[in-house]
Each structure stands twice: as structure tokens, then as C-alpha cells.
Design brief:
The chain is an alpha+beta fold. A three-stranded antiparallel β-sheet has the order 2-4-3. Strands 1-5 form a two-stranded antiparallel sheet. A hairpin with a 2-residue loop joins β6 and β7. The protein is globular and about 70 Å long. 12% of the residues are buried.
């Protein structure tokens, strides 16, 4: 009897990519973040962000990439690094093949599928509860001031705030706030300026302002910096505050 064999879906972490290619993990993470906006624009999906514990027991970010995502990122690597990744994926797919002619394997697969479904249902329930919580918070914010004044004077205000001001409201540093927004896939840095990813652009959350500065030798210069509108400020609070409450 012919065996029906199918390969399981696998992922590879950015840490494994770092070890395989001999590249620093921070450099791999930077390359992935830089390529994510283009991937999101075409595939309508983000790379899966996860965490691992470093040697001091502190959580650090990493990515888990599918084969397609991994090979897309590898286009920025040299020929030798790409070859190592291709061979590693071939080995993973060989090791993870499922033999459906084995009854025990089928039973294990069914149980695994059942466990995953239960996890998905629980995750959806938690997401629904969080959505209700955010909706309630929004209702409290809006009802705390007259609606006309809120929308006409606050959300449409031409005034803006920098990240440091909003971070202070949330009880953290601007560096920490920028990291949270980056890890949530909300922003990324280009030419020294934090900018929103494609999903959050054109929503009126931010705008660019020109900052003037002086060099040590007396020359003057300019640099673009991102500032937040009042609606952007509200958006940042909605994203970050639930995290602080559960921390």
C-alpha cells in the first residue's frame, strides 16, 4: 500500500537564522523589521513576533518565520548564508513529514489539532474580552467631556505632542514607548526617524516636523521628526494602557 506522506508546517526563529548564518541576532532583527513593510503591503500580514529569555532571564523579542518568509528575508543575505538556510529548510521538511498510514500518528495528529483548536478558541475569547475593555475605555474617555468639544477641539486640534510627552503620561521613557510601538508592528525607524507602518498610515495619527539644530562647529542643520496628533495620542494610550494594567 502506498503511504500518504505530508509535510507539517514549520517555522524558523530569527535566533536560529542568526546561528545558521553567523550573523548577530540584532542585525537579523533589524533586517527583518526593515523588510516587513514591503511584505505587509503585498501579503497583508505581519511577521510573527515572539519572545525568548536572555541569559539574565529578561524577555527579548524575536521573530518566527515560515519558509516563504524566511527565504524572502534571506534575499538580503550573501550566497553562502542563503544556501545554509535552504539546506536547513530541506532538513526540517524531511524530519517533519507525517505518515498517515500509521494509526498512532493519525491519532496524535487529531489530538494535536484538537489542542490547537481549544487554544484558538481561548485566544479569541480573550481578544473579545480585550476588545470590550477597549470599547469601554473609549466610552469613558468620550463621555468625560462634551462630545462636540472633544471632536472639534481635541481630535481636530492642530497641536501636536512628541513621543516624550506621551511617554511621560504613561509613566515610561520615550525609548521604552518607541520599543513597544515597534514590537507591536506600529512603527519602524528609517533615516533616524520613527514612521508608522503601512497599516497605520493615513489615519491622522502623526505628522512630520522639521527640527533645527546646531553642530559643534557652529553649522546649523535640520532633521525630520515624527510628532503625534491628539487622535494619535489617544491611539497610543489605547494600545499601551492595557499592557500596563496586566503587567
Amino acid at each position: 500500500m502506498n503511504k500518504l506522506v505530508i509535510s507539517k508546517n514549520s517555522t524558523m526563529s530569527s535566533r536560529e537564522i542568526s546561528e545558521l548564518t553567523g550573523k548577530n541576532h540584532a542585525d537579523v532583527m533589524k533586517a527583518i523589521r526593515n523588510m516587513e513593510p514591503a511584505w505587509e503591503k503585498i501579503s497583508q500580514s505581519n511577521f510573527a513576533l515572539a519572545e525568548y529569555m536572555d541569559e539574565q532571564g529578561k524577555p527579548r523579542p524575536m521573530y518566527n518565520l515560515t519558509k516563504t518568509e524566511c527565504l524572502y528575508v534571506a534575499t538580503k543575505f550573501n550566497d553562502e548564508a542563503r544556501a545554509k538556510l535552504v539546506l536547513r529548510w530541506e532538513k526540517l521538511e524531511t524530519e517533519n513529514r507525517i505518515d498517515f498510514s500509521n494509526p498512532d500518528t493519525v491519532l496524535q495528529l487529531v489530538q494535536s489539532w484538537k489542542d490547537e483548536q481549544l487554544k484558538r478558541i481561548e485566544a479569541e475569547r480573550m481578544l473579545h474580552n480585550k476588545s470590550e475593555q477597549l470599547a469601554l475605555q473609549e466610552k469613558v474617555i468620550i463621555e468625560s467631556a462634551p462630545k462636540v468639544e472633544y471632536f472639534e477641539k481635541v481630535l481636530t486640534s492642530i497641536d501636536s505632542l512628541n513621543t516624550t510627552q506621551i511617554a511621560k503620561e504613561l509613566g515610561m521613557s520615550a525609548i521604552r514607548l518607541n520599543q513597544i510601538l515597534r514590537d507591536r508592528g506600529i512603527q519602524y525607524k528609517i533615516n533616524g526617524q520613527w514612521v508608522l507602518t503601512a497599516r497605520y498610515q493615513n489615519k491622522g495619527y502623526t505628522k512630520s516636523e522639521t527640527a533645527h539644530f546646531s553642530h559643534k562647529d557652529g553649522r546649523t542643520g535640520t532633521q525630520l521628526q515624527t510628532v503625534w496628533t491628539e487622535s494619535g495620542r489617544l491611539f497610543v494610550h489605547r494600545v499601551v494602557e492595557p499592557t500596563l494594567q496586566t503587567a
